[in-house]
Hints:
Elements: E1 4-9, H1 15-28, E2 33-38, E3 48-50, E4 56-58, E5 60-62, H2 68-78, E6 83-86, H3 94-107, E7 111-116, H4 126-134, E8 137-140, E9 153-156, E10 178-181, H5 183-190
Parallel strand pairs: 1-7, 1-8, 2-5, 2-6, 6-7
Antiparallel strand pairs: 3-4, 9-10
Amino acid sequence: MAKLYFNYSTMNAGKSTVLLQASHNYRERGMQTYLLTARFDNRAGAGKIASRIGISADADTFDPTTDLFAAIQEQLAQNPFACVFIDEAQFLTHEQVWQLARAVDDLKVPVMCYGLRVDFQGHLFPGSAALLALSDEMREVRTICHCGKKATMVVRLDESGTALREGAQVQIGGNETYVSLCRKHWREAMGEPDSQAAE
């Protein structure tokens, strides 16, 4: 039975590596996959999903205007495949997550989404919030804080290595920009969250 999956984590947990390995497993068994990634994240090159350990694959891209149901339906008609894999799923819109759910329900194709759960300020990304609400199954891709505890948060660093408390939710970067931390060390780096912001 086809399902919508959300594989989430903090930065640098190996989400892209897990995605590429899962896609490889399908292909190794003679089943094709359809890969998608956010258009503006071109650190590895346009239309590429790449991991920090050096493996990569070509992918179609999406932006907020992409109709993902239509894209999946068209791709299925041209080149049938067994599974859809989406990297950088935090950048999906709420509407696009519903399009993916519809593809699962109506086209009977599993969709595996990989992305961040929260941003550097501890807020859910819109795409992640929608995936948490609509996914059939969720899996955490784990990484650790420098203290050895599970990392659930991420901080964004400036050029001098100081944690930033403000800024745009989206800023493309890697190990030099973001550090994954447990909640305790995130609080130490960021200060106590503003309780007023949650009300």
